[in-house]
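Hey L., structure's done. Input below.
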Amino acid sequence: MGIGSNPNLSRQSRRLYIGSITPDVNEQNLADFFNSKMIEMSIGTGGPGNPVLAVQCNYEKNYAFVEFRSAEDATAAMAFDGIIFINGPLKIRRPKDYGGVDMSAPSVHVPGVVSTNVPDSINKVFVGGLPTYLNEEQVQELLKSFGELKAFNLVRENGNGASKVGAVWWNSLLKADFLQQGFAFFEYVDASVTDVAIQSLNGMELGDRYLVVQRASVGAKPGMPNLPYDQFPEIPRPIMPAGESNTADACILLLLNMVTPDDLIDDQEYGDIYEDVKEECSKYGAVGDLRIPRPVKKDKSKWAPGEPGQQSTIDAQRADEASGVGRVYVKFIDGSSAQDALKALAGRSFAGRSIIATVLNEDSQTTPPLNIIFAPQPDAPPPLPES
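Output:
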C-alpha cells in the first residue's frame, strides 16, 4: 500500500523524531526554531505559512515529534540534524514506522551544522583509541584541525548511537584493543582533506595509546591491525588548525589532553600546573590571561555506593564538562604569539600526554562561551566550585 492511500503513513512521512531534548525545550520554542531556520536558509518547499504544523514533547523519555506541512519539508529539515539548540545538538531521525524512501544523508548541508548521522560512504572515517575523558566537543575540535565536519558520531561504551558499517569489517573491529577506549565516525565537508587528516592523525599519541584512523567505507578490507599500543610508531603528530593564514587575529590558545580533573583537585598541585603553563607559554609572547577550569568540589555525603551516588558522579562529570574542565585557555596579547605557541606546543608531551592544540578568536563559539571562561576573578587561583 502506497503512502498516498494510507493516512497514517502519509502523516509519518511528514514527521521527524527529535531525540535528547532537555526540559528547556518546549513545543513552542522548538516550532519557532524550525520555522525561523527553514525560512532564513530557504530550506524546504518555501510555500506560504510556517513549515511546522505541530510539536509533541515527551519529557519522560526526552524526545519530541515535529510534524511538517509536507513530506518534502520534513525531508529538508533532516539537514538540521546536529544543529545546536539551547543546550546542545538536536538528534533528528525518521520515525521508526516511517514508510517512505529513507535517504542515508540529507541532500542539503547547512554550513556550521554537524550531523549526528554518518552515512556509509567512501568518505566515512573511523577513529579508535580515543581517551574516555575526551567529550564530543573536544574530539570534534581535534578533527576540525583539518577541515569543517559534515557529520560526527562518538560511539559510547554502552553502544548508544553506534553507526552501521560493513558486517565483516565491524566484526574485525570488535576484537580490537583500542575499542576498549572510545571510538567515533566522521566525515568532512571537503572530502579532499580526508586523506591528509588520516595520515596526520593515524598513530598520534594520546595518553598511553595511539589513535587508529582509517576509512570506514562499506567493503573496506577486513583485518584491522590488532596491535598493542606500544607497537605503533612512537611519533606524536602536532595538530595544526586548518586555514592557518586566516587565524592571524586568533590570540587564544586552547590546549587539550594536557590536564585531567584529578590533576586540578589539590590546591598546591593546581597552583604548580598554573605557574608551569604560564611560564612555558610566556616564552612565545606576552600572556594576557590564563584560565584552567577546576572540577566541582565533591560533597562526600552524596557519594555513597548505590544509584544515588552513581547519579551524583554522573552529574558532577557533566558539570565539569560544561564548565570546560580538562582544557587550558591561554590568551596572548597578539595573534602571532598564539601561533608561535601553537607550533611549539602541539604534539609535545606534558605529564606523559601529547598536547592537542588549536587557536580561537575572541568571538569563537565554544561551550562554555569564552566570555564566561575569561570572566573577571580574583588574582589567586580559583577554589574548587561547590557541588
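DSSP finds ten helices and 18 strands in the chain. The mean pLDDT is 75.

-- N.
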